[in-house]
């Protein structure tokens, strides 16, 4: 049993990864630009999957946001709880997981540290720019983009329209839409005209 933690570590290495081991990539090899097999998908696995889940969540939220509300009544407790959980997951991905995984990927796999330079001082830029500053700038850009999306979705969600109540029209007769009525479960439906077998109207008492 003393080797149990090591066995757990070995089992963790056997977790299947759906991303390919290598992908064709055009980059600089030994000072020359050429096509080669890159292994970045496995290295950036958490970053890629978090980005995919975030984009899918945005698509679901956008489609749901365009649908009008069924009624003007406040949301139920269950719907509010599910919506809050969905928003929490999206905020965690956008503000936490994606920027963090990008910084880890940039500093480890890409090896963008303060020892390598992205841009040296010249007549236009009066200072050196190291590659780790580029990683930080991209992370800051992710925060700005997510913040803009966050504010936009919150504002549009508050402006959702309410679906107009459906009305039933008498067959063969065009009537204007009637406002919703009260009077029980079936109060919103219009009373149909009753006729006898000879086509004469039938009068019924209320």
> What Rg is obtained from the alpha carbons, in whole angstroms?
30 Å
Structural class: mainly alpha
- Can you tell me the overall shape? elongated
Q: Poorly predicted ranges (pLDDT <50, ≥5 residues)?
A: 183-192
Helix proportion of residues, in percent?
40-55%
- Please state how the strands of the largest beta sheet are arranged side by side: 1-2
Cα-to-Cα separation, first versus last residue: 83 Å
Number of strands: 4
Number of helices: 5
Percentage of residues in strands: 5-15%
For the sheet with most strands, the description reads:
2 strands, antiparallel
The whole-number mean of residue pLDDT values reads 77
Provide the succession of SSEs.
HEEHHHEEH
Briefly summarize what is shown:
The chain is mainly alpha-helical and 206 residues long. It is built from five helices and four strands; from the N terminus they run αββαααββα.
What does this structure look like?
- The protein has 206 residues and is mainly alpha-helical.
- It has a domain at 44-158.
- The protein is built from 5 helices and 4 strands, in the order αββαααββα.
- The protein has helices spanning 4-13, 40-43, 45-66, 77-108, 131-158, and strands at residues 23-29, 32-38, 117-119, 129-130.
- The strands form 2 sheets. Strands 1-2 form a two-stranded antiparallel ribbon. A two-stranded antiparallel sheet has the order 3-4.
- A hairpin with a 2-residue loop joins strand 1 and strand 2 (32-38).
- The radius of gyration is 30 Å and the shape is elongated.
- Residues 183-192 have low confidence and may be disordered.
């Amino acid at each position: 049993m003393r080797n149990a933690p090591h066995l757990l570590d070995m089992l963790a290495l056997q977790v299947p990864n759906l991303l390919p081991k290598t992908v064709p990539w055009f980059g600089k090899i030994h000072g020359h630009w050429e096509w080669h097999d890159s292994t970045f998908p496995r290295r950036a696995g958490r970053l890629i999957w978090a980005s995919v889940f975030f984009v899918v969540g945005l698509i679901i939220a956008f489609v749901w946001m365009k649908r009008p509300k069924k009624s003007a009544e406040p949301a139920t407790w269950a719907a509010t709880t599910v919506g809050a959980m969905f928003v929490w997951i999206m905020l965690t991905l956008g503000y936490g997981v994606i920027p963090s995984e990008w910084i880890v990927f940039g500093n480890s796999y890409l090896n963008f540290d303060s020892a390598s330079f992205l841009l040296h001082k010249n007549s236009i830029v009066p200072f050196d720019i190291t590659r780790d500053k580029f990683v930080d700038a991209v992370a800051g850009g992710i925060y700005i983009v997510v913040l803009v999306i966050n504010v936009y979705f919150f504002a549009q969600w508050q402006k959702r329209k309410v679906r107009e109540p459906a009305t039933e029209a008498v067959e063969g007769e065009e009537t204007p839409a009637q406002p919703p009525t009260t009077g029980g479960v079936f109060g919103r439906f219009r009373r149909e005209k009753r006729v006898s077998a000879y086509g004469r109207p039938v009068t019924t008492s209320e």
